[in-house]
Amino acid sequence: MSSPLKIEADPEELGFDPARLNRIEEHFTRYVDDGRLAGWHAVVARDGKVVHSSSAGHRDAEAGLPVTDDTRWRIYSMSKPITSVAAMMLWERGLFELTDPISRWLPEFAEPRVYVKGSSGKPLLEAATEPIRVWHLLTHTAGLTYGFHHAHPVDELYRAAGFEWSAPAGLDLAGCVEAWAKLPLVFQPGSEWNYSHATDVLGRLIEVVAGQPLDAFLEENVLGPLGMDATGFVVDDPDRLAALYLQNPSTGRALLAETAGMGALAREALEPTWLGGGGGLVSTAGDYHRFTRMLLGRGEVDGVRLLGSRTVDYMGRNHLPGGLDLEQVGRPLFAEMPFDGVGFGLGFSVVTDPVRYRTPASPGEMAWGGAASTAFWVDPLERISAMFFTQLLPSSAHPIRTQLRGLVYQALID
């Protein structure tokens, strides 16, 4: 069953104006009323206590099923922080150094080749001058990519190999990693940032180092201890799984993926063919709230400690080359807004300059989102965590994340 989710504290006692918090529901209900979203669920907490939880619409509009606290959502890239925490748990045990070449455990990456110029049909490649190291995977500076980017010739090579929104039939995680290792890198490891399959490779690294499948390791070390009973690579209750939608480019309305040629992607949560630590998990609002509480608690929640406090602090620092932000060192992003003033830590984005970010936030805020417009952030300075769940591809369709931030911070009055 899913972790319970209810209002746990008087908003005023924790510095919020209740009427202003209600603007969250008022605003996003309009998304349902005009058809931009089928349904959604938003949660705001301070000091780990839920002060606002609202929802509207349907988890499956065609079936007439409403959004409920225990709705199962495809969280896609919100899987990445979970997998990154799992990796850092192994690091804390001394099983690897962040500077270790990943070829120590994944020999297929022993001699990576790097794209220099040319088309996808005739690319000019050169040898990597730096091995791919563990911290490159955690920070997306390894030179890997995604086929869905459509921004670089190497992206096209990924698509030609069967990797766009899914993987070729018959490949498990080990097979996927071997296939990616045969493709060229977009840049020399450590020199730039590019959103990629790096966290999926990290998941395979966890499997080899820990000696067990990724799903088993996550269940034993992260999900189980945190009580995230409804989170996994296979949805535990298909009747509560939200339907997946795409934005209709001509009308702006949400269109059921099954009727838009993306039915296979919609069904992956029911029958996954590989364990994608970078995007394969299904979760609930209650479960993911437990995870954000752990981050806000610097590795601990309700007496359960996954990581040391200094480890979480270290993960929440900007690890990009030269201390630059994502706009300065990153490749074109699959996102809804610029990332000026936002760096990247070990598994999630990190706000370095809220003024340059042009969004209410605090330095040190840890955040990330998923391809189907889900999002979360943890603000250690204000002791706030917030989450938004829906199922609309792409996440760039609407400025949901910036609007949610504004609506949360305008409600603070302390």
SSE blueprint:
Blueprint: H1 18-33, E1 39-46, E2 49-60, E3 65-66, E4 73-74, H2 79-92, E5 113-117, E6 124-127, H3 134-139, H4 153-160, H5 173-181, H6 198-210, H7 214-226, E7 245-247, E8 254-256, H8 263-267, E9 282-283, H9 285-296, E10 300-301, E11 304-305, H10 309-315, H11 326-329, E12 342-344, E13 349-351, H12 354-357, E14 366-369, E15 375-379, E16 384-389, E17 392-393, H13 400-409
Parallel strand pairs: 7-17
Antiparallel strand pairs: 1-2, 1-16, 2-3, 4-9, 5-6, 7-8, 10-11, 12-13, 13-14, 14-15, 15-16
In words, what does this structure look like?
One of its GO terms (molecular function) is hydrolase activity. Its EC number is 3.-.-.-. The radius of gyration is 20 Å and the shape is globular. 29% of the residues lie in helices and 16% in strands. The protein is built from 13 helices and 17 strands. The chain has 2 domains: 11-85 and 214-409, Beta-lactamase (3-Layer(aba) Sandwich), CATH 3.40.710.10; 97-210, no CATH class. Strand 10 (300-301) and strand 11 (304-305) form a beta hairpin. The strands form 5 sheets. It has an 8-stranded antiparallel β-sheet with strand order 3-2-1-16-15-14-13-12, sandwiched between helices. The mean pLDDT is 95. The two termini are 36 Å apart. With 414 residues, the protein is an alpha+beta fold. It has helices at residues 18-33, 79-92, 134-139, 153-160, 173-181, 198-210, 214-226, 263-267, 285-296, 309-315, 326-329, 354-357, 400-409; strands at residues 39-46, 49-60, 65-66, 73-74, 113-117, 124-127, 245-247, 254-256, 282-283, 300-301, 304-305, 342-344, 349-351, 366-369, 375-379, 384-389, 392-393.
